[in-house]
Q: What sequence folds into this?
């Protein structure tokens, strides 16, 4: 199993970059509190969807990390864990996209519709990309150690492009979060919860 484990660790390292995207929408709080009931209601609808999806994405990353750290895991076990993790990440980003889409454009915000649409598109694209990786993992030959290692290596290599896509998604969410939207989001208990959890595990906030 030694041939597959280092590759799976490479995959894990690549995946870790995507985990922060879920909390990009709930970054550092703003000190401003102008009060906009309609925008606050919009922010609540979006934020209420964040904790569950953030937890799902983090759990998926943790599962892959755990599998990669155990050198005794056979290819079939690695495949099963990675496949489920990719599915969970795909579902997580799709649900975040749906929450922002269903909320509509943030009311009373300049270019709000475009910013909302950009965020939804990026999240939907990420969901599709992870779904694609799940299919690739599912198709790997677990009975042939060499072929499995090669296939997993190819998937890990593809993660480089997905990391760039994740960065684009983060940028889109940050653009959505500017100005009054940031103030409204910062007041939501559900977003505060995720933001606090993120701050406790990183040195940035």
A:
């Amino acid at each position: 199993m030694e041939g597959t484990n280092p590759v799976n660790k490479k995959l894990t390292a690549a995946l870790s970059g995507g985990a922060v995207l879920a909390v990009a929408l709930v970054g550092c709080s703003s000190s401003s509190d102008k009060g906009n009931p309609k925008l606050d209601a919009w922010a609540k609808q979006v934020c209420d969807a964040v904790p569950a999806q953030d937890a799902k994405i983090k759990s998926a990353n943790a599962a892959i990390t755990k599998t990669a750290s155990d050198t005794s895991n056979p290819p079939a076990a690695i495949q099963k864990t990675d496949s489920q993790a990719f599915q969970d990440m795909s579902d997580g980003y799709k649900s975040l996209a749906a929450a922002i889409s269903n909320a509509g454009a943030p009311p009373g915000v300049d270019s709000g519709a475009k910013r909302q649409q950009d965020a939804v598109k990026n999240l939907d694209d990420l969901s599709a990309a992870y779904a694609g990786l799940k299919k690739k993992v599912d198709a790997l030959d677990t009975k042939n150690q060499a072929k499995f290692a090669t296939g997993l290596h190819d998937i890990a290599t593809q993660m480089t492009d997905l990391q760039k896509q994740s960065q684009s998604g983060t940028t889109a969410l940050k653009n959505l979060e500017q100005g009054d939207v940031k103030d409204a989001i910062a007041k939501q208990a559900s977003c505060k919860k995720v933001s606090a959890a993120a701050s406790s595990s990183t040195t940035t906030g």
About this structure: The CA atoms of residues 196 and 202 lie 10 Å apart. The chain has a mean pLDDT of 80.
